[in-house]
Amino acid sequence: MKIVIDVSPLTRQKKTGIENYVFNLCKNLPLIDKKNEYILFANSYGHYQPLQKAIEEIGVKNYQNMSIKISRIPGSILNIMWKYVHIPSADILTRKEIDVFHVSNRINPPLKKAKIIVTIFDLTPLKYRKYFRKKSIQYFKYYFNEMISKADMFIAISNATKNDILSYDNINEDRVEVIPLAADSDYRKIEDNNKIKYIKQLYGLQGNYILFLGTLEPRKNIVNLIKSYNILPKDIKRDFLLVISGKKGWYYEEIFRTVRELGLEEKVVFTGYIPEEDKPALMNGAEVFVYPSFYEGFGLPPLEAMACGVPVISSNKSSIPEVIGNAGILINPDNVYELSNAIFQVLSNESLKSQLSEKSVIQAKKFSWEITARKTLEIYNKIGEIH
Which residues of the chain have pLDDT under 50? Predict the structure, then answer.
């Protein structure tokens, strides 16, 4: 069976959850499956270097049943061609007669006979439109409606996302399978304090800190996090910085404005985007990881923090309780005082902090990329049999 996986997210310079998912899926599949043939398909026009690095790290050349096919048609042009004239087919671009095409990046490829599997990370643009630009909402709505009619199977990364999909258009439950994400093996307790010290120096962090890591955008609820930090007791703010790490998304201006209005310029540190190789040490250096997002399809950063043995405080909304279980503190993201009190409890109670740390590591071990790959392979084989 010839399986094409859309790896176009790997052309991006800055990796987030989608890129990690695609990378780790491709890295693990050839380790457990020597039978099927995998073709990694990407449009890397102008973005070859990040893709080439990912290909090398996956080890594509080491597997006889895995290859890479790169289209040189600019992505914007290819999407227009696929949308309006339905050419060229993915079979032509890959020079293979495809059996299964796995979509990961909101594309709509014309296919001769292949079955389509689509991974849905979340339905945020449809459920929480106020967090997105109008153009982004329209594009996602078009894409998702197309996939509803074409996809043979959906992969949802959490039960919460599955329920969102099922409630959208009366989709048959048999078409949606839940396969969760995982933390990479690099996310673990670091015993070498010099590594943590180096990262703290690299990003100008002096002393202890509370950490948030994610894209700077409204649904991450960073404004409420800053307000929660502001009402902490003076001695806590004196001893702990609030570190906000991540690339700028959209509508992020209020985040910086809130810091200025509250006079927290010396206490809130913005590091910008953090490369993957620096994240484990940055998380290990944190006293507590706080992730008060309003909505997540899965919530990978809290899981990564737990794998590092860091106490986690996060939202009780959407998929996050599935990820954290009873290993962290879940709060109402709309309640600034509840969030502030949770932070205070962890920072002022060493026993609680130690308990959460131990539980976090145990909870994180319930998820692995090998499990993700095996469950995905089951779907490939199931769809292939129907072919």
Answer: none
Instruction: Look up residue 161 and give its DSSP letter.
Output: H
Task: Decide: 315 and 333 in contact? Cβ < 8 Å.
Answer: yes
CB 88 within 8 A of CB 75: no
Q: Which of 284, 257, 78, 62 is nearest to 183 (CA)?
A: 284
Q: By C-alpha distance, which of 48, 50, 7 is closest to 25?
A: 7
Q: Are 103 and 109 in contact (CB under 8 A)?
A: yes
Strand partners, 39: 4, 67
Structural contact between residues 21 and 119, judged by C-beta atoms closer than 8 angstroms: yes
Q: pLDDT tens digits, residue range 332-361?
A: 999 999 999 999 999 999 999 999 999 999
User: What is the pTM (predicted TM-score) of this model?
Assistant: 0.93
DSSP state letters, 78-115:
HHHHHHHT--S-HHHHHTS--SEEEE-SS-----SS-E
| Closest C-alpha among 133, 86, 134, 148 to residue 112 | 86
Distance from the first to the final alpha carbon of the chain: 10
Residue identified by tokens 């309003």 is 294
Q: What is the pLDDT of residues 27-52, one digit of tens each?
A: 999 999 999 999 999 976 656 788 89
The H helix count followed by the E strand count for the chain is 17, 13
Residue 369 CB: number of other CB atoms within 10 A? 21
**What is the helix (H) or strand (E) element at residue 284, kind and residue range?**
helix 279-284
Residue carrying structure tokens 């949802």: 156
> If we measure between CA atoms, which residue out of 346, 184, 355 comes closest to residue 279?
184
Cite the beta strand spans of the chain per DSSP E. Answer: 2-6, 37-43, 66-71, 100-103, 115-120, 153-156, 176-178, 208-213, 240-245, 268-272, 288-291, 312-315, 329-331
Closest CA to 6 of 138, 139, 105: 105
Distance CA 361, CA 119 (A): 27
